[in-house]
Amino acid sequence: MFSKLFNSRAFKRLSEKSNFIQWLYAARQLRWELNAGQYPIYIDYPINPMPRYGHGNPPHKLLYELLKNNSLKYEETINKFALYREYLCSISMEQPINSFEPFWRNGWIGGIEAAALYCFPCLLDSKLYIEIGSGNSTKFVRKAIQQNNLKTKIVSVDPHPRAEIDSLCDEVLRKPLEDIDITLFNYLNSGDILMIDGSHRCFQNSDVTVFFLEILPILKPGVLVYIDDIYLPYDYPLKWRCRYYSEQYLLGTLLLADSGRYEVILPCKFISNDEYLSSHVDSFWDKIGLPKGIGCGNGFWFAVKTH
To answer: Which of 30, 176, 226, 297 is the most exposed place for a label (fewest CB within 10 A)?
Structure first.
């Protein structure tokens, strides 16, 4: 009864003029979110979380230029992935019966970032791969280890991974990043990989805050870092406006203020929006015999440079 009333056109038109009805809509939305296990955050002033960069507006000018200037590096990196053509083509396109196996159309990781997860441990002969947040990424890395006889050790930091992930890892820490001993990251050496796919939100004592202020500064030269869900030099999508993600703004600030410590290796969203680079990605898929539709994804890879 109440659902039909809320969804009626007349009631919606009335809400445009009634603060009380707007309050009712907001209360209903809050109830849904609480029932879904979400946690509200209250702030003391109104905000307007609309895309400022891209999505119909120009990208952030300085970040765009910064990323554009390293385009040759991205092209060369993607070309190297073709060395593993046979193995990449052996990965199933759709979900296999074996839940431990990776597959391309997984709904979470785009094609180029999935290929990167497979290829980088091989190209770098990585000895240690630490991931904050486990899932499909773990499956691609484990597949690379198995098919190429790598000595890479997988360490998973995730309080609530899917059940099958534990058996794919060499070490599991089932707690949030902010609750672990960060000396763990001292074991990352040149050629090793750190993957971050956490809350995407910078708050007091959140995983993003700990990563940028405590972990990133202590990483050794040559360590490769991968952060998921980075849209730079564009904003987060409009449909994510109520997620209040803030992680990429810290990364953008870091890159703009960087004095030469970091090198961008593979900014997947930038690549997918660049006419030349996106056509190069299509050519890559044609070359190795996989469909273009699996795309790029939105992962962002950068390395701590050797001085």
So the answer is: 30
Number of residues in the chain: 307
CB 145 within 8 A of CB 137: no
Whether residue 27 is contained in a domain is answered as yes
Residue type present at position 146: Q
Summary mean pLDDT of the chain: 90
pLDDT recorded at residue 16: 60
**Bridge-partner residues for 173, per DSSP?**
157
Between CA 47 and CA 36 the distance in angstroms is 24
What is the pLDDT confidence band of residue 209, given thresholds at 50, 70 and 90?
very high
Per the structure, the complete domain to which residue 18 belongs is given by 1-36
The token duo for 165 is 């992930």
- pTM higher than 0.85: yes
CA distance 32 to 49: 21
Tell me how far apart the 2 most distant CA atoms of the chain are, in Å.
Answer: 68
Q: How far apart are CA 70 and CA 106, in angstroms?
A: 29
Distance CA 91, CA 93 (A): 7
| Alpha helices (H) in 92-201, listed in sequence order | 111-124, 136-148
> What is the Cα–Cα distance from 242 to 247, expressed in whole angstroms?
14
One domain for residues 205 and 168: yes
Indicate the DSSP class of residue 163: G
Count of beta carbons in the 10 Å neighbourhood of residue 203 = 13
- The residues that bridge with 156 in the sheet, in sequence order, are 131, 172
